[in-house]
Amino acid sequence: xxxxxxxxxxxxxxxxxxxxxxxxxxxxxxxxxxxxxxxxxxxxxxxxxxxxxxxxxxxxxxxxxxxxxxxxxxxxxxxxxxxxxxxxxxxxxxxxxxxxxxxxxxxxxxxxxxxxxxxxxxxxxxxxxxxxxxxxxxxxxxxxxxxxxxxxxxxxxxxxxxxxxxxxxxxxxxxxxxxxxxxxxxxxxxxxxxxxxxxxxxxxxxxxxxxxxxxxxxxxxxxxxxxxxxxxxxxxxxxxxxxxxxxxxxxxxxxxxxxxxxxxxxxxxxxxxxxxxxxxxxxxxxxxxxxxxxxxxxxxxxxxxxxxxxxxxxxxxxxxxxxxxxxxxxxxxxxxxxxxxxxxxxxxxxxxxxxxxxx
Length: 359
Known about the structure:
By secondary structure, the protein is α+β, with helices and mostly antiparallel strands.
């Protein structure tokens, strides 16, 4: 049996998630359009053609439905038959959505199941939360107590006006996922040329002192027997000074300065925001490792992290990433979902236990 699946935690109640999953008009906003199949009651066609992991549109029919926590549908995609199960479980902070798809007839090509599973994960963790924030915004009266609006609609949905669906909602439907969320750009770090070692300068070597030449015998005395003269006491040969060995200057080691980091809120939405931490290496040596810890407000969760490995433990989210070249930077961007529509920044941020700038 071939099976794929994914699971996400959402900061929204189960009934709101169920509405987004089972309403065809809402499903089209975060996954794909769905329309009833003519002359086939209880069957729907979901426009998954062209999505990662799908060979074409999928025709579905409900097998079991228990609102607002369980939906099981049978999917037909060409000659492939699968069963897709969606479970919505209430949690203390919202709900947990689990999607599982099992092949009953046929199969997937190499890598197709993995692409399909990643498509589910990205849609459930990215586009669905944005739609749920928009639905929550519609339920909030921002004019109460004459207070100024503090929430911002998701950019992708601000231009759309919600219209009641003219399609029948009986005999429905599916959960799946769809178009992959646009990947956030990863900021590259600057590569500096290799440090150049200072050339070795040899100290000047004094020239050797030549011994004075002893005059040879005169031509007129060539026939006479040479007479050896007694050596003079003052004719002690002088010693040539030893050349001074050259010294190679020792290169000064580069200073390893502490890493620096700056936090910024890149964008906001009703129940969340996008944060970014830029880690900078001002020193002259390559930093082989670093750790950034971001403290989120209570009830918040991080997702869709780019630029670092990460884990969340309660309110603390720990990021660790690749080496940063001397003078270079590394950017870490992440999505934050929160139940508080006002707070749009973390409570704290440190890099290697030193405070980040920007907070």
